[in-house]
């Protein structure tokens, strides 16, 4: 792993206030949606910090509970001063990252990767040799990761059809096998079920245990 230390990255992870995040999970998880959104962010952050290619994680958020939780696992919190949307939050995080770590590449990473595995993230980051690279989500239309080399503008274009938008902007798709955990972002109940099959992190597993307990009238069941 020592060879991996030569190409450090700083990650920017944007997190909405959990009171409004993951609205598409509300029908399936009406009582636990905010806790799920928070747990996704915590597990994503912790897994990212475990990669030897990641030197720092900046979580861009105005949610005080998320801020406390990600700080506890080792991230730094950057207030979402623009407060005008996802791409603006990422640009803000990238600006802070570039100012503090000018020799690092900058990565925008989805906060909704509860099954993220550090080894798979490391493989992706090692493959980011173009000026800008990105990972297409499992449905094939979105983006879960966008990387920019040191000194290169991130130019995030997240949103509907972001995979095509990023490719049109000159970013190069990372085409590796065995990186499902980097591609499995969670927006729907079906997405979450697949993430659970892959193996979610401890924060999400704890919430899913509560969900299962509520459904069966018991508490503390393992996911």
TrEMBL record:
Binding site residues for phosphoenolpyruvate: 143, 159, 162
GTP-binding listed as a keyword: yes
Pathway this chain belongs to: Cofactor biosynthesis; coenzyme F420 biosynthesis
Pfam families (alphabetical): CofC
Transcription regulation found in the keyword field: no
Keywords on record: GTP-binding, Nucleotide-binding, Nucleotidyltransferase, Transferase
Domain of life: Bacteria
GO biological process, one term: F420-0 metabolic process
Alphabetized GO MF terms: GTP binding; phospholactate guanylyltransferase activity
Reactions this protein catalyses: phosphoenolpyruvate + GTP + H(+) = enolpyruvoyl-2-diphospho-5'-guanosine + diphosphate
The EC number(s) this enzyme carries: 2.7.7.105
Function: Guanylyltransferase that catalyzes the activation of phosphoenolpyruvate (PEP) as enolpyruvoyl-2-diphospho-5'-guanosine, via the condensation of PEP with GTP. It is involved in the biosynthesis of coenzyme F420, a hydride carrier cofactor.
Family stated for the protein in its record: Belongs to the CofC family.
Protein name: Phosphoenolpyruvate guanylyltransferase
Species lineage: Bacteria, Bacillati, Actinomycetota, Actinomycetes, Propionibacteriales
